[in-house]
Backbone:
């Protein structure tokens, strides 16, 4: 008798839950059809590193490197296609990435400082 009562209570609870469940697509399971990409991305130079050291951006995005340290830095692409002037503390350098691809860069003064820009169509 007790098992039958538990079964009836559970069945009623399940039925009630099914009747009151929201209709329509579950927002947690849907994928947005459009993604808003920023038109400008900031990379900060702290002491001896780029933060973040890797970013993924859409073609046409401007990347801005800003020196937050008290040491000079020069941001340079590994293929030497672009390079900043010497950046003192608070100074910035901008570069627009128009073509998809992976772009490695480094600090021309501090060879161990490295970063990557990944550009998607």
Residues:
């Amino acid at each position: 008798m007790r098992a039958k009562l538990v079964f009836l209570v559970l069945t009623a609870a399940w039925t009630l839950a099914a009747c009151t469940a929201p209709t329509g697509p579950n927002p947690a399971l849907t994928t947005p059809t459009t993604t808003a990409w920023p038109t400008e991305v900031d990379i900060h130079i702290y002491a001896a590193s780029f933060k973040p050291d890797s970013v993924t951006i859409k073609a046409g995005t401007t990347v801005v490197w800003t020196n937050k340290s008290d040491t000079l830095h020069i941001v340079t692409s590994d293929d030497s296609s672009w390079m900043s002037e010497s950046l003192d503390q608070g100074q910035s350098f901008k570069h627009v990435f128009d073509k998809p691809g992976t772009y490695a860069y480094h600090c021309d003064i501090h060879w161990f400082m490295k970063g990557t820009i990944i550009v998607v169509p």
Notes: The CA atoms of residues 59 and 98 lie 5 Å apart. Residues 40-120 form a domain with the Immunoglobulin-like fold (CATH 2.60.40.420). The helical segments are 2-20. DSSP finds one helix and eight strands in the chain.
